[in-house]
Amino acid sequence: MENVEKLKKIFDSNFQWSPGCWLWKGGHYPQGYGRIMIDGTTWVASRLSYTVYKNPIPKGLLVRHRCDNPRCVNPDHLLLGTHQDNTEDKIERGRHSHGESHAAAKLTEDQVRKIRQLKASGYKTIASLAKAYDMHPHTIRLIISRRLWARVR
Questions:
Q1: How far is 97 from 91, CA to CA, in rounded Å?
Q2: pLDDT tens readout for residues 25-40
Q3: Domain boundaries of the chain, sorted by first residue
């Protein structure tokens, strides 16, 4: 384990203090989270902050932001949690990608409505819908049964 005082000294020179969020001034990942390399180890800035101001982070846990600001490294805004906790935070705060905003989405909400409408009208079979939308028939079944795209009405 790195010397905590050394880490704290390096950390303290890389953020802008304020009464609210402490904004990371150093490098950052594309998502906005700060990063820094110390003695060949790359640290996520919020993890470094938690480590130097609170405690070492147990294996398997991540650092979550109460403030939803990825540049923030204020230890009072940070708490530990699991990936499940983090996912629940994103959903609760409306930051969870779903539907056509998800990077892997192949359909729009309008297309999902059309698939359901065509199937309900009896005009198209699952196989023909799968072919028309370049999807697997199982995926079409999940869309029709609302096990996928459940939010779309």
A1: 9
A2: 999 998 899 999 999 9
A3: 4-92, 99-144
Per the listing, tokens 């309900």 go with 120
DSSP codes joined into one string, the chain: ---HHHHHHHHHTSEE--SSPPEE-S-B-TTS-BEEEETTEEEEHHHHHHHHHT-PPPTT-EEEESS--TTB--GGGEEEE-HHHHHHHHHHTT----GGGSTT--S-HHHHHHHHHHHHTTSS-HHHHHHHTT--HHHHHHHHTTSSSTT--
pTM (two decimals)? 0.63
Q: What is the pLDDT of residue 19?
A: 87
- Please give the Cα distance from 62 to 80 (Å, whole number): 6
pLDDT in tens, 112-136: 999 999 999 988 899 999 999 999 9
Do residues 22 and 29 touch, judged by C-beta distance below 8 A?
A: no
Question: Are the C-beta atoms of residues 50 and 73 closer than 8 Å to each other?
Answer: no
Q: Per CATH, is 4-92 categorized as 1.20.120.1200?
A: no
The pLDDT of 96-125, averaged and rounded, is 82
